[in-house]
Every structure is written in C-alpha cells, then in structure tokens.
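The data are quoted verbatim here:
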Amino acid sequence: MAKRVVLVALASAPAALAGCSSSEIGPPTKVTMVTSGGFIRPGDAVSSPDGKTFYFTAFSDQLDENDQRLPAIYKVSSEPGSIAEPLVTGAPLRSPTGLVMSCDGGTLYVADLLAGEDDGGAVFALPTAGGALADLGAGIARATGLAMRADCKTLHVTGRTAERAPAVFTLPAAGGAAAVLYSGEPLLQPSGIHVDGNGVSWVMDQRAQGTKGQGVLWAIPADGSIATEVASDLRMGMPGGVSLIASGGVAVMPTRDADDQAQLTTVVIATGETSQLPVADMAAPAGIRTARDVGVMAVVDADGAIYRADDE
C-alpha cells in the first residue's frame, strides 16, 4: 500500500549522520578522472573504505563470439591514470546497475536489473578478492540501487514489487527474503540510494515530480512511514546517484545544470544550503559512493569514465 507523502522545505528534512568517520571530512572540492577506456556504459561505483580502490559496473568494449558486450564488475586504483581490470565478467550478470560494499571492504553487493529468474532482476554478493557471484535470493524485481545500513548487516534496495510497484526494500546482507520498506506513490523510478546512521533512506528518483520540477531526492525514515521531498528539479543520470559524505550531514549528487553541464550538487541537510561543483569534462553524471573512512568519493560518468572527488 502506498504511503501518505508530505512535501516539506529542505531545512526541515530529517537530520543525518553517516556514523562512520571523522567530523573533519567535508564535501568534495575537486574532481579528477581516474580511468577510461576498456569498458563502456559504467553505471555505479563504490570505493574501498580507505579510498584507495574503486569498483564499478560496466560493459566490455569488446564483442564476444555472439557479438554481445559482456556485463562486468571492474576494479581500479583510485589514482588518476589507472587502468581498470575486470573482477568478474559475464553470466550470471545481465545488466549490473547498483553497487555497495560491506563495512569491512571484503564483499561487494551487486544489483542487476535483468539477472535471475525470468530476467526479473537479482542481488548478488561478490568477494572483493575475487571469486564467484552468489545470488542472495532477494525476490526483488528490477533491482537497481543498493545501500548498506549502519548495522553492516542490512541492505536497502531500490526496485519493484511483484506487482511492479516502485519500492524500497530491506534485505539481509547474508541473503534471504526481502521486505518492503516503502512502496508506491510518490515513487516512480527510484534508483540511487544511501542510508544514513539514523536508518533514513535517501532515494534518487528520475521520473518523480517535485515542487520545483522533475527529478527528486526523497528521504524515507527507518520505519518506512513517509516519503519526504528533500530536493527536486534534479537533472540526474541513470542510475541517479546519491551519497552522504563519510562524516554525514551533506548529500552529494551528480547532476546537470540548466545548460546540461555536469556538476556535483551538495545539500547541507540541517540548513538546506545547496551548492554546485562544476565538472567540466564529465558528460553523463550517474552513480556516486563515498569511502567510509576518508574524504574520497567514486563518481561515474556513464559516457565511459570513472572519477574521484576529494574534499581537499
């Protein structure tokens, strides 16, 4: 059943704390390309806790024997000029879209829009040291975005219910049955998601219509009681990306300005202050994820590049 929605001013949105790092970490002030080439159509990226290694979803730039481009998860140093290498390639992946990492940095979780039974979508676990993908048995249709709760045991997943209603789910990181946290209006096409230390889900929605225009950042509390508009008229990519900085309190989203130029939009949750950091050479801003312990963010350009955003 859809929940009631109340739209409020940004300044009154729920306060947030990531609960995982130093209060001295601030929002990004510079963005640098890390890697491009050898892959196409990256969608989401995640950083290791120390910010030294990035992982991202993409497709091979080479055709296989069936003239298909293979879906893959790539690994790359976060230093500029690095060369990405595939960590895992091909089946059971079909269309990997969302990524998040375990708190200890040992496991990647992958949301795939088309994998699984009847091409309905799936969530996988993958060791960062390499190995096989394990299906978590989620039962989530069109799984798109992932986030890790502060308990380090629970995933939050955007996708659709069996009835194809847009929804946010919770899922044990060890695998098992997913539970619907929130479904229905005002969600339309939820994708990128971040969960703060208070259990609030910050959800990007490309198609949702907000008070200022299309493209909304929603806040859904831990009890799933309501979806609150935090910001709207966000020209986001696919998937839409959102991450709070490691010290919490500030949401960062890759977006485009009115002239279609890429930027990082930051929102100070407590005050409603919004600012933009232009990224001149980025073409198609998409996923983003903070490192847990340092002021580094992995940022995706869906046109074919991975960037790092730093707070200094």
About this structure: The first strand starts at residue 30 and ends at 36. The chain is about 0% helix and 50% strand. The domain at 10-310 is CATH 2.120.10.30 (Neuraminidase).
